[in-house]
Task: inverse folding
C-alpha cells in the first residue's frame, strides 16, 4: 500500500514545497517519526511521509487543495494527546499539525465570546478568559497540553461536564477547510441562530474526517463562585452507586462528581499513601455549591458512606481531589495500560463497575475504574504487559468485553475520547446499518476521495 | 407545475390508500385546505393534494417510501404553529401530519430523560415531567399548542433560553424516517457520547428537509427553585441597552430577560391600561434567582431605570409578566402583522432597536419590537394592511431592511423561527457560497429527489 502511493506522495510533497513558505513541509525522518501516533495504545501507526505545519488558513487550504489534487491522505493533528488513534499516521499520508496556529484572536467580554485558532492550548484559553472574569468549562484530563482544535475534533469532555456540558456545547461557529481546500464558515457569534443546518455540530466530533478546523468561535460563561469539595468513602460499591443516583436524582447539579473504584483506590494508596485502607470499595469526589453541601453529605451518608470530609477552602479542596488526579498515574505504575472510555446512564454506573470487576476476575487481570460518575462516563483502565502477546490479547479481550457491557447497559462505546482507530470496529454495533450508511453518505459527500483521516472512524 | 404532477399524485395516493389503514389518507378538500399553511404571513401556499395522518413509525416509513417511489413531495407538519412557512403546502405535494403520534413514551426520573413522540404538545410534556419534579426548559411563545416535533424541526427557543439554551440542547437522540422510508436512529440516552457524527444535531433545525422525526429522546433538568420577577421602565432606549449589557456582563444568568420597545409598550397600554405612560421608551422584564435580585436592581438603576418593581410572589410575578405576554396580541390590534425574528450579539440589542425605529420612521410605518434581550433575539413586528398591495410591499421592504440590519450588526437572519419559505432568499446572504454548496450537498445526499419540503429553506 505504502509503495503503491510513493509516486503520488513525492509529487505532492514537491508541489507543497514550492507552494508554501520554507519550514512548512517537513520530511526529516527524525521529525516525521515524532508525528506517528497519539497517546492511544494498541493502535496501528506508521511515520507519515511528511509533516505540514501551516501558519494560517490560506496555507491549510493550499495543503488540502494540493493533497486532494494528488490523491494523498491528510491526517489532522493537534497536540497528539488523543486516546483513540484518530491522529495516528500512515506511511502513505501527510500529517497536518495545527500547532503553529495558536493565537487567541479575540475575547469579547460583554457578549462572552472568544475567537481562537485551533492550536491554542486549552489551559491557556481558560487562563486568558479568567482574566476577564469569564470561564471556559471543558476540562479534559489533558487540559494542560491538549488544543482547542483537538477538543473540537473529538468533542472532548472532562470533569466540568456534569454541570456545563461538553466542548460542542460551547462552539458557536467555526472556519473549516474542506477536503478540496475550500474554506467554509459555519455557525455565528450570537447565542441563538437557526439559519440552515447545524454544520458546526456536524464538524464537532468528526475526528478530522470531514474537514480541518482553522478557527473556532466559543461561548464563554461567567466565572463560577467558590466551590465546596467533598470526599466520601464507601465499603460497598453499590452504596456509592446509590449515593450517585441519590445526588443526581435529588436535582443537585454538582460542578464535579467523580468516582474511583477499589482497584484505583488501592493503586492511589500505594503511590501516595493516602491511607484509604483496604476496606474501601469506592470513593466519590464531589464539588458543589455551598448551598448543596448539606444535601450531598446527607445523601452520601444515607447511602452508606463510611467517611465523609468536606472543605470550602480551595487549597484543601485541591488536596482532596489529589486522589482523582493521581488515578491514572497510580494505575500506570502497575504495568502498561489500555484506557477505555464508555458512558452509561447514571443509574447504571455501579452496574458497569460491577460488570468490569467480573470481567477482571474472570480474566485474572487488573482493571481500575475511575471517571465522571455524574454523567455516567467511566474510564476503565486495563493493566497488561505490552511485551507479552498473550497479555496484549487478554487486554484487548477485556477491553472489548467492557465496551460490550456498556452497550448492554444502554450506553455508548465512547463518551468523550472518540472512535478513531481504536474503536472503529465497534462503530457499526452502536450505529446500526442505516446509521453507518448515513455516516458514509455524509463522508462521501464532503470527502469523496476519502483522503481525510482515511484510517479513522470511517475507514473503508 | 401542479398539473404536470397530477398523475404521479393520483397513483401515489392510491398506493398510500391501499397500504395504510382507513382514515390515514385524507383527500376531502375541506380537510386538506386546513393544512395549507402555518401561521406565517406573506408566504406562498396551496392546499395539498392529500393529508397523511400516520399512527406510528412504520406508517410514516410507508408514506415516505411510496412518496419516494412516485416522486411526490412530502411536507411534514406538527401543529402548524410555525412562523416561517416551512410547513406550507403545495398542490403537487402531500402533507404528513404527526399529530396522532402524541404519546409520552417514557419519563426516566433518575437519568432525567424523556422519550416522546413528535406530536406531543410542548406544554403537555412540561406538565408531565413537572409531576416528577423535573423541568423541560424550551418554552416557545406557542408552547401551549406547538409540538415537540415542530420544536425539534425548527430548533425552537423561547424565554428560558437565556439560562437553559434552545430545543437542540435538550435532544439526546431521535428516530428519523429518511426520504426513502429507511428508519434511522441517532444519538443515545446517555448525557455524553461521541460515537460517530452528531447526526442528531444535523436533523434538529432542518425544517423537515432531511427526514421526518418520529421519536425524540430528551434531556430534562431539575425543577428550578422559586424565581424573583422584576420590571424596570426606561425613558431612554439606550439606558435599557446599558442595563441589558450590564446584567449579562456582570455574570448574572437570569431565567428570563425580555425587552419591550416604546411602540410595543404603547400598544400594551392601549390594550390593557397598564399605565406605563407616554414617556416610557423601553421596559425590561427579568426573572432571576433571589440571590441576584439586588444586583439586577442596582444595575438597572445605575443604567437609568425610571421605575423598578419586583416580587418573589409567583402570582404577582405573573402579573408583571403580563405586559410581555400581551405584546403580540396588543400589536395585532393595530393591523395585520409581519413578525420578524433576528438575533444579534447582546451588546447590539438596542442598536438594532434604534435601527428599526429609523426604518419605521423612514417608511412611515409602525414596527413594534419585543423579545429575548438576554440572548439578543428580537421579534420586530411590522404592522401593515394586508388588503393594500402597497402596504404589503412596504411591509416586505421594512422586514428586509430589519434582516439586513441584523446581519450588519453581526447577527443572524433568524434566531428561533427558522428560514422556511419566508427567508429562504436570505439564506445565502448569511451562509455564503461555500456554505450553500455544503448545505445542498448534504440535502442531495439524504434527499436526492428533493422531495422533503422542496419549497422550504433549500428550494431549488
Result:
Amino acid at each position: 500500500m505504502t509503495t503503491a502511493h510513493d509516486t503520488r506522495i513525492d509529487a505532492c510533497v514537491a508541489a507543497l514545497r514550492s507552494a508554501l513558505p520554507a519550514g512548512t513541509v517537513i520530511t526529516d525522518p527524525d521529525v516525521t517519526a515524532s508525528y506517528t501516533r497519539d497517546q492511544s495504545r494498541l493502535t496501528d501507526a506508521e511515520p507519515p511521509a511528511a509533516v505540514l505545519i501551516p501558519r494560517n488558513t490560506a496555507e491549510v487550504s493550499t495543503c488540502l487543495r494540493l493533497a486532494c489534487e494528488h490523491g494523498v491522505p491528510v491526517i489532522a493533528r493537534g497536540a497528539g494527546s488523543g486516546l483513540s488513534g484518530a491522529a495516528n499516521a500512515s506511511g502513505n499520508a501527510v500529517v497536518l499539525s495545527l500547532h503553529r496556529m495558536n493565537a487567541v484572536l479575540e475575547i469579547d467580554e460583554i457578549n462572552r465570546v472568544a475567537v481562537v485558532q485551533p492550536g491554542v492550548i486549552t489551559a491557556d484559553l481558560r487562563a486568558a478568559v479568567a482574566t476577564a472574569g469569564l470561564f471556559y468549562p471543558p476540562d479534559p484530563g489533558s487540559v494542560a497540553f491538549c488544543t482547542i482544535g483537538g477538543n473540537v475534533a473529538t468533542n472532548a469532555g472532562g470533569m466540568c461536564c456534569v454541570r456545563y456540558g461538553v466542548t460542542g456545547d460551547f462552539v458557536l461557529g467555526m472556519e473549516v477547510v474542506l477536503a478540496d481546500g475550500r474554506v467554509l464558515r459555519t455557525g455565528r457569534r450570537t447565542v441563538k441562530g437557526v439559519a440552515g443546518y447545524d454544520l458546526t455540530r456536524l464538524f464537532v466530533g468528526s475526528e478530522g474526517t470531514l474537514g480541518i478546523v482553522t478557527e473556532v468561535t466559543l461561548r464563554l460563561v461567567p466565572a463560577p463562585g467558590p466551590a465546596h469539595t467533598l470526599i466520601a468513602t464507601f465499603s460497598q460499591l453499590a452504596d456509592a452507586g446509590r449515593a450517585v443516583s441519590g445526588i443526581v436524582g435529588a436535582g443537585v447539579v454538582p460542578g464535579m462528581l467523580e468516582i474511583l473504584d477499589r482497584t484505583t483506590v488501592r493503586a492511589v494508596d500505594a503511590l501516595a499513601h493516602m491511607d484509604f485502607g483496604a476496606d474501601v470499595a469506592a470513593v466519590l469526589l464531589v464539588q458543589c455549591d455551598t448551598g448543596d453541601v448539606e444535601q450531598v453529605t446527607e445523601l452520601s451518608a444515607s447511602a452508606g458512606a463510611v467517611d465523609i470530609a468536606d472543605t470550602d477552602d480551595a487549597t484543601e479542596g485541591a488536596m482532596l481531589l489529589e486522589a482523582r488526579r493521581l488515578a491514572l498515574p497510580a494505575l500506570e505504575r502497575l504495568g502498561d495500560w489500555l484506557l477505555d472510555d464508555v458512558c452509561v446512564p447514571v443509574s447504571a454506573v455501579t452496574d458497569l463497575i460491577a460488570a468490569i470487576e467480573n470481567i477482571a476476575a474472570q480474566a485474572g487481570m487488573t482493571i481500575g475504574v475511575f471517571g465522571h460518575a455524574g454523567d455516567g462516563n467511566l474510564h476503565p483502565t486495563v493493566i497488561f504487559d505490552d511485551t507479552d502477546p498473550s497479555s496484549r490479547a487478554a487486554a484487548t479481550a477485556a477491553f472489548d468485553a467492557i465496551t460490550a457491557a456498556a452497550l448492554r447497559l444502554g450506553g455508548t462505546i465512547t463518551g468523550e475520547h472518540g472512535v478513531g482507530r481504536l474503536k472503529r470496529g465497534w462503530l457499526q454495533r452502536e450505529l446500526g446499518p442505516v446509521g453507518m450508511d448515513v455516516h458514509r453518505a455524509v463522508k462521501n459527500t464532503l470527502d469523496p476521495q476519502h483522503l481525510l483521516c482515511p484510517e479513522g472512524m470511517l475507514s473503508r
Remarks:
- Chain B has three domains: 4-99, 107-222, 228-409.
- Chain B has 15 helices and 19 strands.
- Chain B has a mean pLDDT of 96.
- The domain at 228-409 of chain B is CATH 3.40.462.10 (Vanillyl-alcohol Oxidase; Chain A, domain 3).
